[in-house]
C-alpha cells in the first residue's frame, strides 16, 4: 500500500496534490476554491498511503463547496461556554483547553474546520488566566487538551503546561485528544512520552477512522505512549466513503485493541460546512452498530454519540435494545430476536 517514493514534506496545496496524481483532471479550479476556504495539509505518512478510506479524509473534494442550510460554523457550540480565552467549560467536572489551533493534517470533515489553523498557540498570559480559572473552580477535575491538535506542541512546552496543571490540587487527570500518533507518528518522541509520564495521570484519546491509518510507525508511537503509563482510548468519526460499514469498522476497532487502544467514542458526523457528502443517517449508523454487537469483543465496542448542535452536549444515540410493553419490557438480543423482561 505504500507509494514507491517517500514523500519528504507535508502537502499543503493543490500543486503538491497534483504532483502526486491526487487531483483529477478538470478538478483543479474547484479544488483551488476549496483550499482557499478550508486549509489543506497532509502529512508524508498519510500521503504515502494509497488506501481510498484514508485519502478521502485528507484530499480536498469539490463537493466541499456545497454548503447546506443546516450546516453551522460552530456545529458543537464550543463558543457558547467560554469563560476565558482558550477554555470551553460546558460540563461541571471537565473543561476543554484549546492549546493550539494548528494540526498536522486538516481533515476534510473536521467539526472545527472554521477555526483550525488560524490563531496559533495559546499565549503564556492566556494560559495563566486558564490556570487561575481552574484554581477558582475546583469542581473541574479534568482538563482536556484539544485544538487543533495539542500534540503538535513541543515536549518542552507541554511539559511546562502539565507542570502548572499538576500544581492545581483539584485536578485528578488530564486528557489529550490527538491525531498525531497516527498521522505523524515520528512526533511521538521519547521526550514527548517522558513529558506525559507523571504523577498526574495523562490519558490520550487517539483519533483514528480507518485500519489502514494505523501503520507500523503509528503502532510504535502508540507503544511508546503505552510504555510511559498513558492509558489509550480512541475516537472515530463515522464517515460515508471512509468507514461507514460494519466490516471496515470492525477491522479498525480490532486493530486498535491489537495496539492496546480501547475504542471510546464513535461520533455521528457533525453539521460542519461543506461536509454533507460524508454524512449518513442516524438509522444507518444504528444499523452498523447493531451488527457489531455480538460479533465483536465488548472491549472493542465504542459508544455511538451525537454532539447536539448548539452546544447542548454529547449523548449516546443507540441503537436501543429496550422498549416498554405493558407492565414490563421487550429486550432485543444481538441477533435481533425479542424477549420479554419483567423488572418488578
Ligand atoms: C466532548 C466534550 C467533552 C468531553 O466529553 P466526554 O464525554 O467526557 O468525553 C467535554 N467538554 C466539551 C465541551 C465537549 O464537547
Ligand atoms: S486533526 Fe482534529 S482538529 Fe485537526 S482538522 Fe483533523 S479533526 Fe479537525
UniProtKB/TrEMBL annotation:
Q: Does the keyword DNA repair apply?
A: no
Q: Which UniProt keywords apply?
A: 4Fe-4S, Iron, Iron-sulfur, Isomerase, Metal-binding, Pyridoxal phosphate, S-adenosyl-L-methionine
Question: What cofactor does this protein call for?
Answer: pyridoxal 5'-phosphate; [4Fe-4S] cluster
List, for all copies, the residue spans of the domain called Radical SAM core.
89-300
Tell me if S-adenosyl-L-methionine is a UniProt keyword of this record. yes
InterPro entries attached here?
A: Aldolase_TIM, LAM_C_dom, Lys_aminomutase-rel, Lys_aminomutase/Glu_NH3_mut, rSAM, rSAM_sf
Q: Which family does it belong to?
A: Belongs to the radical SAM superfamily. KamA family.
The protein's name: Lysine-2,3-aminomutase-like protein
Amino acid at each position: 500500500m505504500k507509494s514507491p517514493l517517500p514523500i519528504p514534506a507535508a502537502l499543503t496545496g493543490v500543486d503538491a496534490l497534483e504532483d502526486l496524481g491526487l487531483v483529477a483532471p478538470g478538478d483543479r479550479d474547484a479544488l483551488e476554491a476549496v483550499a482557499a476556504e478550508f486549509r489543506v495539509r497532509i502529512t508524508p505518512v498519510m500521503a504515502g498511503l494509497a488506501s481510498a478510506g484514508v485519502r478521502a479524509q485528507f484530499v480536498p473534494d469539490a463537493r466541499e463547496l456545497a454548503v447546506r442550510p443546516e450546516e453551522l460554523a460552530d456545529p458543537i457550540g464550543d463558543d457558547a461556554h467560554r469563560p476565558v480565552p482558550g477554555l470551553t467549560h460546558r460540563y461541571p467536572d471537565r473543561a476543554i483547553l484549546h492549546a493550539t489551533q494548528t494540526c498536522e493534517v486538516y481533515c476534510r470533515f473536521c467539526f472545527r474546520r472554521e477555526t483550525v489553523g488560524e490563531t496559533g498557540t495559546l499565549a503564556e498570559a492566556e494560559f495563566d488566566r486558564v490556570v487561575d480559572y481552574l484554581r477558582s473552580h475546583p469542581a473541574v477535575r479534568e482538563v482536556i487538551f484539544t485544538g487543533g491538535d495539542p500534540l503538535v506542541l513541543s515536549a518542552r512546552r507541554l511539559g511546562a503546561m502539565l507542570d502548572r496543571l499538576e500544581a492545581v490540587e483539584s485536578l485528578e487527570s488530564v486528557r489529550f485528544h490527538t491525531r498525531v500518533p497516527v498521522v505523524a507518528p515520528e512526533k511521538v518522541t521519547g521526550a514527548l512520552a517522558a513529558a506525559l509520564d507523571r504523577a498526574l495521570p495523562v490519558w490520550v484519546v487517539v483519533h483514528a477512522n480507518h485500519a489502514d491509518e494505523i501503520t507500523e510507525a503509528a503502532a510504535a508511537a502508540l507503544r511508546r505512549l503505552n510504555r510511559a503509563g498513558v492509558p489509550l482510548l480512541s475516537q472515530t468519526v463515522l464517515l460515508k466513503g471512509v468507514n461507514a460499514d460494519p466490516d471496515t469498522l470492525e477491522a479498525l476497532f480490532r486493530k486498535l485493541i491489537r495496539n492496546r487502544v480501547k475504542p471510546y467514542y464513535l461520533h455521528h458526523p457533525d453539521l460542519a460546512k461543506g461536509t454533507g457528502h460524508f454524512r449518513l443517517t442516524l438509522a444507518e449508523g444504528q444499523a452498523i452498530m447493531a451488527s457489531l454487537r455480538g460479533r465483536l469483543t465488548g472491549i472493542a465496542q465504542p459508544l455511538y454519540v451525537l454532539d447536539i448542535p448548539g452546544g447542548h452536549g454529547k449523548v449516546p444515540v443507540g441503537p436501543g435494545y429496550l422498549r416498554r410493553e405493558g407492565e414490563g419490557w421487550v429486550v432485543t438480543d444481538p441477533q435481533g430476536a425479542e424477549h420479554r423482561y419483567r423488572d418488578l
